[in-house]
Automatic annotation (TrEMBL):
DNA-binding region: 29-48
UniProt protein name: TetR/AcrR family transcriptional regulator
Superkingdom of origin: Bacteria
UniProt xrefs under InterPro entries: DNA-bd_HTH_TetR-type_CS (IPR023772), Homeodomain-like_sf (IPR009057), HTH_TetR (IPR001647), Tet_transcr_reg_TetR-rel_C_sf (IPR036271)
The HTH tetR-type domain, residue ranges: 6-66
Keywords: DNA-binding, Transcription, Transcription regulation
Organism of this sequence: Bariatricus massiliensis
Pfam families listed in its UniProt record: TetR_N
Amino acid sequence: MAAKGERTRELIKEKSYGLFARKGFKEVTMKDVCLETGLSRGGLYRYFPSTAAIFEAIFLEMSADAGNEFEKGMADGLDARVILKYLLEERQNEMQERDRTLSLAMFEYSQAVSNEFFVELNRKGKEKWMQFIRYGIDRGEFKEVDEEQVTDLILYSYQGVRMWSAVMPMDASVSRHIVTSIWDILAGNE
């Protein structure tokens, strides 16, 4: 029963992600989620009390997945450049997914519910990036840089492209330029 329940939670998050990407946060209702998942209202409420709870669960999972990318690679003692290459390829692909951005929904959630949720997620994400950059510096695989400065560049250029790609078509060269610049700052030839 627990496995079925977990599959149902995952289905709800997966289908809701698409709804939030298409409609934003404010326009998605529990009825929309029921229609998208095929669940009854009672079935849906068994797993989530509100669209805000679904939205938060989506972001908590994404944040945990991103953290695991760092932690596993570092725990396995991988070369920081190998980890960085993987992370940058992932971010570059995400920046090109115009129809999968949650930027509008994030903004609306912050206005309608609270921005504290994203402030805390950002703080944790920033810590993980800074730890990872320090890992690469300490191992001699990254250049000596200001970890916070580079982390800010990574986080906010990424989110900026995600937001703008929801507003207008974004040429693939933009994400490629960002990824190449970050690589050069951290790992490029000195």
